[in-house]
From TrEMBL:
It comes from the Archaea. The lineage of its organism: Archaea, Methanobacteriati, Methanobacteriota, Stenosarchaea group, Halobacteria. It holds the Pfam family HVO_2753_ZBP. InterPro entries: HVO_2753-like, HVO_2753-like_euryarch, HVO_2753-like_ZBP. NCBIfam families: HVO_2753 (NF041909), PRK14890.1 (NF011481). Coiled coil: none annotated. Residues 12-55 form the Small zinc finger protein HVO-2753-like zinc-binding pocket domain. This is Small zinc finger protein HVO-2753-like zinc-binding pocket domain-containing protein.
Length: 59
């Protein structure tokens, strides 16, 4: 795993905060299957996210 992948894996894709040890959601991108992490605050506020690999956007 590269440094970029490691940073991405520990950060909310919407706001960029470190999600280690938080109540974050992990799911696969509906288009390409890449693992995406979102913090509880962004999920609750329905902030948009964009897949870093394919550009898919969702609520």
């Amino acid at each position: 795993m590269s440094t970029t992948d490691e940073t991405r894996a520990r950060s909310c894709v919407s706001c960029g905060i470190n999600i280690s040890g938080t109540n974050a959601a992990a799911f696969k991108c509906p288009d390409c299957g890449v693992q995406i992490f979102r913090c509880a605050k962004c999920r609750k506020q329905s902030n948009l996210y964009e897949c870093p690999d394919c550009g898919f956007t969702g609520p």
